[in-house]
Specification:
Four copies of one chain form a homotetramer. Chain A folds into two domains: 51 residues, Orthogonal Bundle (Arc Repressor Mutant, subunit A); 137 residues, Tetracycline Repressor, domain 2, CATH 1.10.357. Chain A is mainly α. Chain A is built from ten helices and no strands. Chains in contact: A-B, C-D. At the A-B interface, helix 7, helix 9 and helix 10 of A face helix 7, helix 9 and helix 10 of B. Chain C binds a DNA duplex through helix 1 and helix 3.
Chain lengths: 206, 206, 206, 206
DNA sequence: GATGAATGAGAATTCATTCAT
DNA sequence: TATGAATGAATTCTCATTCAT
């Protein structure tokens, strides 16, 4: 079987293809962030990417195909960074771990409002969860999920329930993030944070 | 200022105007529910409403103008119903009141998935909250919000914090509702309910 | 009920609409004749007609909508002319009538090869026959068909069979016309004519 | 000149070429039958054939190049079969021979409506007639044509006229076939048959 | 000979908005 | 007020053909 990651072992044309895909992906990402998905025409994407219109359809089904990819890839990066910080902190209290984790995500998305907007409006738990659970490329993200679920299991919570708790924390966090960062409702993220963390702690306790 | 509610006191032409507005509103609602907002053209709305295209622009700025109205009006109805049930229950435990309240909302939206979809995808806390807080027509909804905030105040929670807690409960509930009813992720609403209620109780406790 | 033909009684806007339809129709006809249907873009039609692209779709479903109209209208004109000639000839022999009739059609289409091409390639008996049989506007054409069928009835041929014989004469004639005029195969129309007439006579005899 | 038929004497690479051509031809035929010519893209043909896009252009000029080939080859097969039946019948009455011949063609095309559609819409007498008259590969079909013309010659009809009569019978038959089988207009093929045969007999008689 | 990635012109269709009536 | 014909920019998507490998 062909190893996907071995960029070195790829033929020249395969590399070229990958680069072309990246060009289109990057152009789309920038435009989505800048003008929103619905206001970005494919003709703009290909123009920015410097490829022909037809080339777009060689690599993607439509705009929304790219949106899903963006969400998965970007989330993956952020989640990995957040986990990295948790590990490096050398803190072993689970509640603190979660707060640390969430806090990093907040900080990233606070800086990148556009990305937050894009992710929030197009995220579905299924897309997110299954991508990480099943796909080859997202080993790390999968490990994060498992980490949380395992920790809750130790606290006497079934895997099934743990998964649902995780889901609720994610949903609550992303809702609060979106509303407070983008709309500043009901308050700024700075003012929402203490209550959000308090609420997450409550949810994690029995 | 003209009193809006006094339908009886209106002149004939004013009544006609209101009826025309209602026709357009109703047609738009049905179509949004049926085909989604983006897939509904103004030409379809006016056709269904039986008015001319130009007439639409006499009453509304664009499609999204109507969407906001729909959300506010429909939410208002549902919230009032839910509050009615709380009052009629003669239960005076606050936690139970909230659960009863949320449960009714779940049951309504479980039956009307289309409306849930429409509301969830286009709801913003600001729209919702401010509409009820400030507008004449939504006295009841305003009273509900005040009811909750007062109850939390008695428990020693500041109005400001109470409002945020309310916000979080609303956001969490709507996220869970949407995901579980529409996508059945991470599980059906029936299976999510116990955990959702448990979580809400946790959030309400100190 | 509104009389369709009363051009005089039409409102100004109705007249305008009719003129616009005519403009598009005429432009399309000329282009179809000139370059063929498949090689004519709607953008060319509207450009030639001097209207906006959207206007096209206000009057016609697509290109082929116009093709059908062209065939029916043009056939109607030709058939009426041919019948006129039969009547004016004061010949009362049925066989001669048919030959006279067919001969006129040949002469018209011999002069207008482009129209022949258009008609032949897109004609279906159903379109043709039913249009004349049922539509208000084609009283004369209907009367022609009835005339032939009646004459054959007198000769002891059932209406049903008469209709089929008519169909075969039409099909044979149009095939021969198309092949001989457009492709000069197997011979020129002049050289085919005698045999075609002979064959038609044979078909009409018992 | 290279003998085309000697498959055995071909070099390996020549065989390979022929096989590749056949693959493309077969794929195109199936797709044309299935979806029509205009709705079949070259990319689909090569995909089905399992060759690269560029390869198509090594063997054919365009889609329509293949269409002509299909018509000639398929017609050839059908005509040969029909002739076979005439010969095997041991009937020596010419009129009966023609009817037998036409009847077989009807039966084949009645079973293979798709092929009928393809052939009819793209058949021109010239293509058909000249292919059989001149090309090496269609000796049998050529002999059939000669057979009919000879028989008519015996009846005192010049070769030239005989050819035209044949043409008219073919055109009439194919028109009736197409219209009755595909469109069921003016009636089903079963109901048209008696009249078609009667008409053909009339045409053949002096 | 064979490949298939890349091209980009071009087609059909939609639809919010305007404005003369 | 109300109408609805007209607009035309904008968008998506297709596909025959080329050409470097």
């Amino acid at each position: 079987m062909k190893k996907i990651n071995d960029y070195k072992e790829m033929s020249k044309s395969e590399k070229k293809k990958l680069q072309k895909e990246k060009k289109i992906f990057d152009a789309a990402y920038e435009l989505f962030i800048l003008k929103g998905i619905n206001n970005t025409a494919i003709s703009e994407i290909v123009k920015k990417a410097g490829v022909a219109k037809g080339t777009f359809y060689l690599y993607f089904k439509d705009k929304y195909d790219i949106v899903d990819l963006i969400i998965i890839r970007k989330s993956n990066i952020i989640l990995n960074e957040a986990m990295e910080i948790v590990i490096e902190s050398n803190i072993y209290d689970f509640e603190e771990n979660v707060i640390l984790f969430v806090n990093h995500i907040i900080e990233i998305l606070q800086k990148d409002k556009k990305l937050l907007k894009l992710i929030y409006k197009n995220l579905s738990w299924g897309l997110f969860y299954n991508a990480f659970k099943n796909m080859k490329h997202y080993e790390n993200a999968r490990r994060i999920i498992t980490f949380f679920i395992d920790k809750l299991y130790i606290k006497g919570i079934s895997n099934d329930e743990a998964e649902k708790i995780l889901f609720m924390i994610v949903e609550l966090t992303s809702s609060v993030l979106y509303s407070s960062i983008i709309l500043e409702e009901p308050d700024t993220i700075e003012n929402m944070k203490p209550l959000l963390f308090k609420t997450i702690r409550k949810i994690l306790r029995n």
